[in-house]
Automatic annotation (TrEMBL):
It comes from Nocardia fluminea. Belongs to the cytochrome P450 family. This is Cytochrome P450. Pfam families: p450. It comes from the Bacteria. GO terms for molecular function: cholest-4-en-3-one 26-monooxygenase activity; heme binding; iron ion binding; steroid hydroxylase activity. PANTHER family: BIOTIN BIOSYNTHESIS CYTOCHROME P450, P450, PUTATIVE (EUROFUNG)-RELATED. Its cofactor is heme.
Amino acid sequence: MSESTSEAVRGAIVADPVAWADPGQIEDVLAGLRREDPVSWVEIPGYNPFWLVTRHADVMAVERNAELFTSGERVLLQSADQDDARRNGPLKSLIDMDGAEHRTHRAVTNDWFKPGRIRSREEAVTAEARRTVDELIERGGECDFAEVIAQFPLRVVLSILGLPPEKSSWVQQMTQEVFGATDPDMRRGGDLGQSYRETMREVLTYFMGLTADRQKNPNDDLASVIANADIGEAERLSYYGLIATAGHDTTSYSITGGMAALLENPDQLALLRRDPEALTDAVEEMLRWSSPVRGFLRTAQRDTEVGGVPIKAGQSLLLSFLSANRDEAAFEEPTRFDITRARNRHVAFGFGPHACLGAHLARLEMKVFFTELLSRIDEIELAGEPAFAQAVIVSGIKRLPVRYKERQTA
């Protein structure tokens, strides 16, 4: 193990939700670790220890070998008590599964998220993007962009699942309380653990009712597919929760982060306006830049090494997707936002068997949204400082004040 106490202390910052509200500080620490201790041992009171993996090549090496580095033991960066509760609890999510079990459960919904199926939804997604830009315009030229945009991917996911539109506010609240419970603006108040348990009870109660309904009255939505799949009841409930929550907040963080990057780099915004064909590459750069999923853990099944560092069987590794996406060895000028970046090998969606199920949908949502926005908004600028969520697993800009003018047509 690394002998450097200072590196272990520096690495501990990734578990501090308050630190994530200052992304510059986090990125500086990760840059130092990439240079000096790219696979560093981290011990934090109240947490199970782990190796922090910060280089792109090492993250990819782990993700490519899902047999050696598994997800079942530990996948989210949380306290030791939460690790135990998740490992021994009744629910098991797709992100916690490995091997044949993971393949079987992913196959339940995989066809719904393949490129062809996603392309068939482009008209519906475009209609939602248009509705969202309508809402921006109705705000009168100034608003919190993050607040308005959050409804866009949420409505798309609810439509795919077959949940009624009136559930959107509830699903958004549940998502914030699950993934952003460490942020005072997002949790329901009181003790953090109690807040999380109350949220999960509410989520599970709703999805149990949804299962009963779709088993009795199946239709052509994704909720019916999950309700009638040949999987266990606990896995079924987790499946709903994963798609309903993780299926939209990562996209809204990516869109908001991309918008902020364009506003902070007006030359890139001007380039995108001049050349709409650049949008495909711009979306990939927005994903690299935002990296809303900060990282996942994997556990070594036998003694091995990563980046030349010995790893013992049973030890966990936190793969920092944000750090990998800022790696100087993988990207030319990685701290520069460049919508023309070629060979953008970002890992915003992870990689390998556990790569994001909804990646194609997220790309489509981002592309149609910015197409609609740039065709209807002539001027847009920051109206205040962005505010970042205090969250360690999924996070990004939670408030983005903007001013804008609608394009006038003759």
